Amino acid sequence: MNESRVLNGMSVDVEEWFQVGAFERTIDKDDWEGLESRVVDSTERVLDLFAERGTKATFFTLGWVAARHGALMRRIVEEGHEVASHGWDHQRVFTMDAAAFRADLRRAHAALEDASGAKVVGYRAPSFSIDTRTPWAHPVLAEEGYRYSSSVAPIRHDHYGWRESPRFAWKPVGDAALVELPVTVGEAIGRRFATGGGFFRLLPAAVTDFALRQVNAERQPGMFYFHPWEVDPGQPRVHAAPLRSRLRHYSRQGAMVGKLRGLLERHHWGRVDAVVERLAS
Ligand SMILES: [Zn+2]
Q1: 281: CA distance to ligand 1 center in Å?
Q2: pLDDT tens for residues 211-258?
Q3: Ligand 1: centre distance to CA 1 (Å)
Q4: 217 C-alpha vs ligand 1 centroid, how far in Å?
Q5: What 3-state DSSP class applies to 212?
Q6: Environment of ion ligand 1 (residues, CB < 5 A)
């Protein structure tokens, strides 16, 4: 097998423009219902891009979104993609206890399966919020029957990260089949650097290319993610958010589709459940 043929996980975290971690302290959850929904249009833009390239991907979707947009969920499944869970309403795991986490998982799982008609076996924590503060999280996922999680960023970041966790796929719970597929981080001069999401949007694509080639050279799958709101330059502006959050959120959204198209061309991509099955065999 050629190095370029390692199957990498392509994933989309499906959430509204107002549900992101960066605006958590600015936009109240009670106000979500009254805000302009743009998730269908922006996710359809993503689906069109994948269709153009023939790429299959995993859509980690909020239960809150699935419950309101059944047609979108069905289109995702009809086009050959995987539907997975991003939790109910973007509550970060380290703000919950084990019981609240389990309730959040179940509520999202029911909404996702009802809306999509597909079986959900994957989970991504909002803002990669499984870390040293949540030792119960992976065991709960295993008990709830999940096949994989992609919920850890093995890096130190200002909002999140678990620097000491493995860079590559690992089994977090003893005998359970559950696999954790962390988001890809590159390594250079002894330091780790992040890829995906805002990092991909804001930095040259070569940074992500380098990290993916580095990971694939070790026969390991990469894991990439982005959000529908990153390909939606027309979204309303949240002026009350901190400047740093606004800079990160809005920069270079117009260039994102072209950049993604190049990334899809240069690497081998698939659904995350397919990546997990390859690891198991
Ligand atoms: Zn998210």
Answers
A1: 30
A2: 999 999 999 999 999 999 999 988 888 888 888 888 788 778 778 999
A3: 34
A4: 29
A5: helix
A6: 13, 15, 126
CA distances from 247 to 42, 128, 153, 179 (A): 20, 20, 22, 34
Q: What is the pLDDT of residue 161?
A: 83
Q: What type of residue sits at position 220?
A: Q
Write the pLDDT tens digit of every residue in 10-55: 999 999 999 988 888 889 999 999 999 999 999 999 999 999 999 9
How much of the chain exceeds pLDDT 70, in percent?
Answer: 98
The 10 Å Cβ neighbour count of residue 140 is: 20
CA of 127 to the centre of ligand 1 (A): 5
How far, in Å, CA of 77 to CA of 87, rounded?
A: 18
| Ligand 1 centroid to residue 21 C-alpha, Å | 7
Cα 233 from chain centre:
20
Q: Are the beta carbons of 168 and 182 closer than 8 angstroms?
A: yes
- Tokens representing 227 are 């959000």
CA of 2 to the centre of ligand 1 (A): 33
